[in-house]
Amino acid sequence: MKLTVNNISQRYGSNEVLKDVSFSACSGEVVALLGPNGSGKSTLIKTLCDLMPPKAGKVDIDGRDVACLQPIERAKLIGYVPQNVQYAPFTTVLDTVLVGRRPYVQWSYSMDDLDMASRAMETMDILDLRGRYVNELSGGQRQRVFIARALAQSPQFYLFDEPTSSLDLKHQLRTMRIMHEVVHGQDRGMIVAMHDLNLALRYSDKVLMLKDKGVYAYGRPEDVLTPEAIHDVYGVESFIMESERGLFIVPDEPSDGTCAEG
Ligand code: ADP
Ligand code: MG
Q1: Residue 82 near residue 142 (C-beta atoms within 8 A)
Q2: Which label site among 77, 91, 178, 262 has the fewest CB atoms less than 10 Å from its CB?
Q3: What pLDDT, in 10s, does the model give residues 178-237?
Q4: 71 C-alpha vs ligand 1 centroid, how far in Å?
Q5: pTM
Q6: Residue 38 CA: which ligand is closest?
Q7: How far away, in angstroms, is 126 Cα from ligand 2 center?
């Protein structure tokens, strides 16, 4: 399947955040969405799932306008994990993950739905937390619950907004590897906003860099993530190190002595 973004623009009031953004993402590809704080990554992801309908332009999946999809159809096509998840207090982990099965349920959850939820929890290493309340978990544990919910939903396109931001090192690497395997093994698509350039280099098939309301570059990570691009987009000097485990980006201090706005 192909998710196509056609000349979309987005703004909050008079503040234009995205202008004329176009690209496409296909099944079987992990697309890392990169850019400094405030560059519009979260806004773009919300626009792709029609949580914020675009002010101009269109998003379609295999020619079907995302804005015209019924909620259940949309939930089968798109699984969104926001940067800051809203959750109902005193809901268990199991109940939260089971919500992912809602688009497929007729009357009540089947054994298959429970199975899918259990497998998703196992995959995300939270099976032993299944009876706990989501509001009583650590930020990283909670983040894994919502990724598990998306896995239980099993959509055609996963849209994740900084899914690894609260995760420890092992779970960051594990989550990215799992998502890479799901995308390639089940032929799903994924667009994932992130900040870790080395995770993007290792686990993504394509990188989309945002700058000045638009697409600065889009392509294979090893082609896009050059020291020049990293300097242009983040204002940070860096060099690329080659090792037997692949390429690594080694950043230097910001060139102007300050960090990017945001
Ligand atoms: P990123 O995810 O790349 O950090 P965002 O998409 O969250 O960037 O934000 C892009 C711009 O839109 C920023 O300037 C931010 O201040 C603004 N913005 C984000 N959300 C809102 C909102 N709800 N209302 C007004 N402005 C917003
Ligand atoms: Mg964001």
Answers
A1: no
A2: 262
A3: 999 999 999 999 999 999 999 999 999 999 999 999 999 999 999 999 999 999 999 999
A4: 25
A5: 0.95
A6: 1
A7: 25
